[in-house]
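Need tokens for this chain, all 455 residues.
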Amino acid sequence: MTVDLVVRNCTIVTPAGRTANAGVAVEDGTIVAVGRSDRLPEADRVFDGDGNVLVPGIVDCHIHNREPGLEYKEDWESATRAAAAGGVTTVVGMPNTDPVIDRAKHLEVKFERGEASAHVDFQSYAVVTSENLDLIPAIDEAGAVGYKIFLGSTVGDVPPPNDGEILEAMERVRETGKRLGFHEENGEIIDYYTTKFEDEGRNDPIDHSHSRPVIAEREAVERMITFAEETGVKIHMFHVSSGSAAEAVARGKDRGVDVTAETTPHYLWFTEDVMHEKGNVARVQPPIRDASEHDKLWSVGVDDGAIDCIATDHAPHTPEEKLVDDPFGNTWNAISGFVGLETEVPAMLTFVDQGRLTLEGWVRRHSTRPAQIWGMYPQKGSLQVGTDADFTIVDPALEWTLEDRAALHSKNSVTPFEGESFVGKAVATVVRGEVVAADGDVVGEAGYGTRVDVE
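Here are the structure tokens for all 455 residues:
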């Protein structure tokens, strides 16, 4: 028997453990064997893993690819090119585009654009607003991976539903069997402090952070968990930034609510001191928190397990929008968000090198769990025979520094990780049996990526 592709000479790592001197055999884009390198079949193509670590393909369930309507910032092609270069095999796009993804026809356009230009596989959320509650079944039929509600002001100014509408939305989403996620910040709190600070002339980057206090995040998490407890819907907390919010998630889990949560590498890597060091480059919503909340996010969220998965909130903006030439300028003239698709794997591997995570724990949070949460498992996030041949090969000992953000593949590449040093990097990305990136070069074709079917 000869197969299409064999990857040999790796240490395979899954949440269940690791196997040395192993590899994977692929036929027609599907895994047909996993095991010792010397027991794998002959192949038309052989990829030597050179002793590196092979893991199930990394799934980033929170990116802003900006298409349709905001392609000057990013598009499906550039976002998924960055994903491929960074070791990410599946991405899920956010709905605050132009137009917003609030109805089936808008979702279909987003999927069509992805099919035409994506380098890796993809999915998309749909937004829930006051205006589209009755459209949720049709959006479900169109194939959305799940739903999102923006509870507070954010990029795109998508207005939040009121609490009664949120309860009705939860009931309608529950009937689809999909999960409902939240940008969980109390809008009234952050709007009050934003206006107050602006009126007082508090215009430094750290003032933006303090205008969105931890209580705004924690209250929103607790309120949505209470609503979910009443309605029985599955919910998800996007970009949890604080240990206090992670504690609220943990309390919800303890009460039996089906609540999952993600955090990002930048919340785990930085404290709010970065606002004094890098200014508006690090401006993000929710903001990066102080050392106490950062430490509690690690202890409660990561060590104790309140946080289920890792994602980036990859959010490209132009250098002008980020005030790169004047990073400590008036923060109310800057925009929130930055790229992360090419630094997420290195950041997490650096935490592994520091002993803060195991490789198995990293894979569970960055591949298996996001695929499970959003209905893509086991086709994504596993190395099971019969599933998509998606895997990421990493060199966990490679030391390097992101010296120049211009080396990144996004259309706009502003990031506070510029200048940061890492231990570990993706050296190859394989999507459905095709090598789409190797040694930092994207070698796959635009349009190879395809929409992931979800259950």
